[in-house]
């Protein structure tokens, strides 16, 4: 297998692992979403700390910490990813797996919209059309659910904010996660100490196996991230952009086929509109990229 093939395989593995998360987090119940989130932060901090040592990234991490602007951006990223993780865990442990899938389906469109609002980027006509269809889809789904799909909206917005902060900071994946989890770790430890003293903690109350599962949250967080980082250096962003749909597709299928969540006709209509918007958006992006590459090739030839 050549380098590009390994990149595709690693990228697919990352998104497939993320797509299987709805099967993992319910194993940690009856712990609530906040307790699970706190454990994920703490064990991720320890896991990433070990990775920093093994990959000899201490000097790189020290350089990151010396840049005040970068540290502020990573603190903002930490806030965004904590909201994202919390909303996701809440969604999959409260019977809203399909709604979490919706959040990651619309995330690319929300990211583009944020680029317009925050970075003043200009959109092409088909991109505007895709956003309009997605907006109609959200309205249809809100009517179908009898409420706005808050879990999906929070997931999409928080991950778009996270992506914007990470893009602006421009720091390696492991170093970035090391700072983000270290920022969140004191709060997470404080919360775990509080519920432990209050006698409301669930971790450690349901056998050794259940307790040990919590220690795997760091590995579950780090492994797909490492695979993704390795893929991003081997394949074009357009390929990563296509692979990213593997996770919500798998989550959607798990929600419908495994967890048997209700999908009345109106919700199907909303999801079909979302998928139409994504097809338009992705096809336009690929066409535009090919056009730009062709123009670049012509310019270099001249």
UniProtKB/TrEMBL annotation:
Keyword annotations: Cell membrane, Membrane, Transmembrane, Transmembrane helix, Transport
Transmembrane segments: 7-25, 37-57, 69-90, 102-119, 126-144, 150-165, 177-199, 211-233, 240-259, 265-286
InterPro entries, sorted: EamA_dom, EmrE-like, RarD
UniProt signal peptide: none
Main localization (coarse): membrane
Cellular localization per UniProt: Cell membrane
Topology versus the membrane: Multi-pass membrane protein
Pfam families, alphabetized: EamA
The keyword Cell membrane is assigned to this record: yes
A cellular-component GO term for this protein: plasma membrane
Stretches assigned to coiled coil: none
UniProt key word Cell membrane: yes
EamA domain sequence ranges: 6-141, 151-281
PANTHER family membership: ACYL-MALONYL CONDENSING ENZYME-RELATED, SOLUTE CARRIER FAMILY 35 MEMBER G2-RELATED
Entry similarity comment: Belongs to the EamA transporter family.
Protein name as it appears in the record: Unannotated protein
